[in-house]
Write a structure and sequence with these properties.
The complex is a heterodimer of chains A (146) and B (709). Chain A is of the alpha/beta class and 146 residues long. Helix content of chain A is 42%, strand content 16%. Chain A is built from five helices and five strands, in the order βαβαβαβαβα. With 709 residues, chain B is an alpha+beta fold. Helices cover 47% and strands 23% of the residues of chain B. In chain B, the strands form six sheets. Chain B has a six-stranded antiparallel beta sheet. In chain B, a hairpin with a 6-residue loop joins strand 16 and strand 17. Classes of the chains: A alpha/beta (146), B alpha+beta (709). Chains A and B meet through helix 1 of A and helix 12 and helix 13 of B.
């Protein structure tokens, strides 16, 4: 496993298997990874670590992803951090709810790890273009599925 | 008045002294003034050529001049001789006041007392200068007065003077009665004649004179008619004389002297004997000319009457037939309310045979009384021509009450007097029965309406129940959809982990894997994907059924979409060794629809075709139907084909014709059923044409513009 040195991704996911799977694959893909298991923890970690991007599951215990995102987007310190929502609820309304809460992107589960990585890289690239510089994310090293 | 003193004509030498002596003797012997006067007049007629003459007395005890004798003077003139002694201005009295005779001619202002226009009035005085005791009036041919007349006047005056003192009152009265008799005879309108047995006229009343005497100035025709009448009359009398009957009655045809027309008389003649004058005949003529006419007319009118009677009888018969044929009773009553006429139906109400029992008789009487009171009501309403009312009658035989409406009309005479009352009775039983039936009908109708309303209410209630059940069902369905949605979510969380870790293993995230390991991991991967597709399909269907699949409309080009689908399936196409071609017919418009859903359908068509076609080709056709404004996208393969009986089933949920060769490609068999639902959402249809061994053609027809919701 390559020692991660890329952008810091905060993975917020209550389901341990999924959280660790994404974390493993992100690290494998060259990202640094931090983890949170609920909305409250997600806010604490974000304020503490100021990650480059947050991967936020919406269905969370204690505080759900929508509420956590709303709070983060109201906080001056964390407002700039892009949030990619991750949900198994493909029903109409969820995407709209996520956007209203302040999520910048929306990915439906099941989402294969490489697709998720691709989305994160896309978001970071567009954010970088907007801010006109900043840290470059590491090149994606994962192989593309044929 | 023209008056002149009469010139005395000297005594005619021809007059014999003897006759004068005879008259003188008679006068001396006579104590009767009337007879003396008549004898004097007769002498004048016989000896002095006098035709008409009279003697009038001026008697102080009488108010009038008294006519005591006349000769040749008409009864009329005699009756009219009426001079009051007070009328001193009267020419006759004035003439009598003179000492000498007076001559009257045409210029005289008075009517001649003796019919002739020329006459002398000779005053009768016993002594010259003495009182005038009367007058002798004689006809004359001129102003010359014959000496004989003066002589007679002188002797007559002496006789009058001698006798007048002896004249009894009774005698005077006799003269008056004679005058009265004349008046009476004249007043009789029938001609009356007194004749001798030969028919010679003695006395005739005015009406008889018209027939039997002609005045001097009468025309020739008149004279001839009078002569003829006298002849006819004499003939009639002589036949009666032969028969010697006391009272003869026969018809006598005479001529009207003035008109010339025939007159028919009934002649009644009787003989009378007078001691002085002998036998004479009194005849009364009754004009029966008009009577004869009348009889003829009566006979004619009798005949006419008979004919009319027959006609009336016929008419009456017809009328009876008509009236009897009228079903309604008709009655005609007079002012007293008695029935004058009635038709047969009316008879049934008011007449029963005497043999019928007590009850029918009583009912008939009651009916009659009711009618009488009704008619009297009509009579009191004089102003109205029509009167309408109801009379409570009963059937005489059965006693059943007959509700009867009576309409009465009055018949007035030409003078406006009420003559009859015509009453028509109309039996209302039927009308009342109809009314009752109508009420029943109305009641039944209302009942029916009520029942219909009840049924409607019940129906509405059941509808409401159904509506509630429908809502409950919808809620259950929504719950089911929610449950499936939740479940698919719960399925996907672990599946996500399986796919993710398999993926990581295959990508060597956890280190290199051996080839057998890789093969196993690939199996896990493909089965996980199959499971994910199943879950996604279930989710789609539940979303569609829950109505939670939104339409995202956008404008796009069909060929672009087809190429996109082809490029997505490029790996599978390459693996399948099939020739996939596109064919475009004509020009396609830009379509406005839900691009994602159209793409899903086409993707399904093409992947199905690739799955179920072992060899050959797949063609994607595109066309536009202008008239229907629809685009069609068809996918034709040369595959296995679908048997006819199975063609409708391929659109059902979880159906696959033959699962075995296709399993490798996955798919829950929900694809076409989802496609059909999506096509419906877009306002389109999906059609399948196929036969076993001849391949299949799936066609999506889609409106170029979305249908209005």
């Amino acid at each position: 496993m390559v020692e991660p040195s890329g952008p810091l991704v905060l993975v917020v996911e209550d389901y341990q298997d999924a959280r660790e799977m994404y974390a493993a694959y992100l690290q494998f893909s060259g990202f640094r990874v931090a983890e949170a298991t609920n909305g409250v923890e997600a806010i604490e970690k974000t304020v503490e670590l100021i990650p480059d991007i947050i991967l936020m599951d919406l269905a969370l215990p204690k505080m759900d992803g929508w509420e956590a995102t709303r709070r983060l987007k109201m906080d001056e310190r964390t407002r700039h951090i892009p949030v990619v929502a991750l949900t198994g609820h493909a029903l109409a309304g969820h995407a709209e709810g996520a956007r209203l809460a302040g999520c910048d992107s929306f990915v439906t589960k099941p989402c294969l790890p490489d697709a998720l990585v691709a989305e994160i890289q896309r978001m970071l690239a567009s954010r970088k273009a907007e801010s006109g510089g900043g840290r470059r994310p590491a090149r994606q090293t994962g192989r593309k599925e044929t | 008045m023209h008056r002149s003193v009469a010139r005395v004509v000297p005594l005619t030498p021809g007059v014999e002294l003897e006759s004068k002596l005879a008259l003188s003797e008679f006068l001396l012997a006579s104590t009767d003034l009337e007879a003396s006067s008549r004898q004097s007049l007769d002498w004048l007629v016989a000896n002095a050529n006098i035709r008409q003459a009279l003697v009038a007395l001026n008697e102080p005890s009488h108010p009038n001049l008294l006519l005591i004798a006349a000769h040749g003077v008409s009864a009329n003139a005699a009756a009219d001789f009426n001079v009051t002694r007070d009328e001193t201005e009267h020419p006759l009295l004035q003439a009598m006041a003179r000492p000498e005779p007076t001559f009257f001619d045409h210029a005289s202002s008075i009517r001649s007392p003796i019919d002739t226009q020329l006459y002398h009035v000779v005053p009768l005085r016993a002594d010259p200068g003495g009182a005038c005791q009367g007058a002798l009036v004689v006809s004359s041919s001129g102003p010359e007065l014959p000496a004989d007349v003066l002589w007679v006047a002188r002797v007559l005056a002496k006789q009058v003077d001698r006798l007048i003192s002896r004249q009894t009152l009774a005698e005077t009265r006799f003269g008056e009665e004679r005058m009265l008799l004349y008046s009476i005879i004249n007043a009789v309108t029938d001609p009356i004649l007194l004749t001798d047995t030969e028919g010679k006229l003695i006395i005739a009343n005015t009406h008889a004179e018209k027939l039997f005497a002609a005045p001097e100035d009468a025309s020739e025709g008149w004279r001839r008619a009078v002569a003829l009448n006298n002849m006819l009359f004499s003939a009639a009398l002589s036949t009666s004389a032969v028969t010697q009957t006391d009272l003869a009655r026969r018809e006598l045809l005479l001529v009207d002297p003035l008109e010339g027309s025939d007159l028919l008389f009934e002649l009644l003649s009787s003989r009378a004997k007078d001691e002085r004058q002998g036998t004479y005949v009194v005849s009364i003529l009754r004009n029966i000319t008009d009577l004869a006419h009348a009889r003829e007319e009566i006979e004619e009118s009798y005949r006419t009457l008979r004919v009319a009677q027959a006609e009336v009888r016929d008419e009456r018969h017809r009328l009876d037939l008509i009236i009897d044929s009228v079903v309604d009773p008709i009655l005609v009553t007079d002012q007293e309310g008695d029935i004058v006429l009635m038709n047969e139906p009316a008879e049934r109400l008011f007449n029963v045979p005497a043999s019928s029992g007590e009850a029918p008789q009583r009912r008939v009487r009651a009916n009659g009384a009711n009618l009488t009171s009704f008619v009297s009501n009509v009579l009191t309403r004089t102003g109205e021509q029509r009167y309408r009312g109801e009379i409570p009658f009963s059937d005489p035989q059965t006693g059943r009450l007959l509700p009867v409406e009576a309409v009465a009309g009055t018949i007035l005479s030409e003078q406006g007097e009420l003559v009859w009352v015509v009453t028509i009775l109309h039996d209302l039983t039927e009308a009342i029965e109809k009314g009752r039936l109508y009420e029943q009908l109305k009641f039944a109708s209302a009942e029916l309406e009520r029942k219909v309303q009840e049924a409607t209410a019940e129906l509405a209630q059941q509808n409401e129940l159904l509506r509630r059940q429908h809502i409950a069902l919808e809620q259950a369905s929504a719950l089911k959809s929610q449950f499936l949605a939740n479940m698919s979510h719960e399925f996907r969380t672990p599946l996500n982990a399986i796919l993710g870790y398999t993926h990581m293993l295959l990508h060597g995230v956890t280190g290199t894997v051996t080839d057998p390991q890789r093969k196993s991991l690939s199996r896990i991967d493909s089965n996980s994907r199959h499971l994910l597709a199943l879950i996604n399909d279930i989710l789609d269907i539940t979303r569609i059924e829950a109505g939670r699949m939104p339409l995202n409309l956008s404008s796009f080009q069909i060929p672009d979409l087809v190429h996109e689908v082809m490029s997505e399936l490029e790996p599978i196409i390459r693996r399948s060794n099939l020739t996939v071609t596109t064919r475009m017919k004509g020009k396609l418009p830009i379509v406005k629809s839900d691009r994602q859903k159209v793409k899903q359908i086409v993707l399904n068509f093409l992947s199905n075709a690739l799955k179920f076609t072992p060899q050959g080709s797949v063609t994607i056709g595109m066309s536009y139907d202008k008239s229907e404004r629809c685009v069609a996208i068809l996918v034709r393969d040369t595959g296995l084909g679908i048997p006819l009986e199975a063609q409708s089933k391929v659109f059902e949920d979880f159906r696959q014709i033959d699962s075995s060769p296709a399993r490798g490609y996955g798919g829950a068999g929900l694809g076409l059923s989802i496609c059909r639902r999506l096509a419906q959402m877009l306002g389109g249809t999906i059609k399948l044409v196929s036969a076993v061994g001849a391949g299949s053609t799936f066609t999506l027809k889609l409106p170029a513009r979305p249908p209005r919701r």
